[in-house]
Design brief:
alpha/beta; two-stranded antiparallel ribbon; nine-stranded parallel β-sheet; 16 helices; TIM Barrel
Length: about 350
Amino acid sequence: MRKPLIIGPFQAAIPAVEAGLAGYSDMAMRVVARRRGCPYAVTEALLDRVVITGGRAREKGLVLNDEDHPVAGQLLGSEADEMAAAAVILAEYGFDVVDLNFACPVKKVMGRCRGGYLLGDPDQAIAIMRAVRDAVRVPLTLKLRRGLNDSPQAADDFERIFDEAERLEFAAVAVHGRTVEQKYTGRADWDFIRRLKLRRPRMTLLGSGDIFCAADALRIYETAGVDGVWIARGAIGNPWIFSEFDALLRGESLPLPPRIFAQRAALLEHFTLAMEIYGEEQASRQMRKMGIKYSRLHPDGAAVWKSFIQVKSHADWERVLLEYYSIDGPGREQISVADAADLYNGCDSAGAAAA
């Protein structure tokens, strides 16, 4: 029952999106995934004021290449005029779509009236949406959670914002199945997304939350009836998730995990692209956390993780590849986040600290 994912004038053969992830979703990660079947991607959330004022942070966040299309630049902010001005800059830089983030639950983002905070301030959220719509002609999309919390008022606020997205002819809305207050605890409510799609059949709806592997992507696509799947954490270190999802949609068996040489090729591509953005020294540090994520697919994943976390230079990076990726062999099946935390003794938090 697959159908193309349509976002504005863009049609994606696979109904999947590589979501924006803070600290990960740069041009390097997006292009590596595109070469393995990802049809559409979103940047990490870019702070409107950084986009406006410029500097190194903006230039690195706005790097694109010819392979990196169609792509949405995701904006985070609290003031309508600043969000509109930043959207104009994204369009001038060649971003095909502008995505507004009203979903981020991080404390420092919420404290500055950005991200998920706006789900509790629908008047300001709508003012931002209108200002950005007036400022640019590129398609607009929206990232939401299912509400600020589980209160009736939060439900009403969500509906007001969604109503405005339809009125302003936003090209798509992505909805994460947790509330802002939940952050990443508990399970994402896919049934909320299913009911929303039934009520709002005309809006292109992307389902988000708890999609860690291709089988998860297929389940939310089929059970929630969404138009596309917003793949976030499941794509970090596993750019093959898109081709795997494609195979399942065609009714085929899940492909075998990528072999060691295939993993090495992706790692080398990723590092080369990262150097284009950051230079060799910073790319080595940036790729340390990426290597940690890729290690989950290696048959000796715990040892590979421990080696990647020690990387401080390009030479260190090459030593890890020489030791663990110089002999081909079968890869390891993608494991759940909970299993990974047990196996690697909390590698996600340790890896983030190291990076």
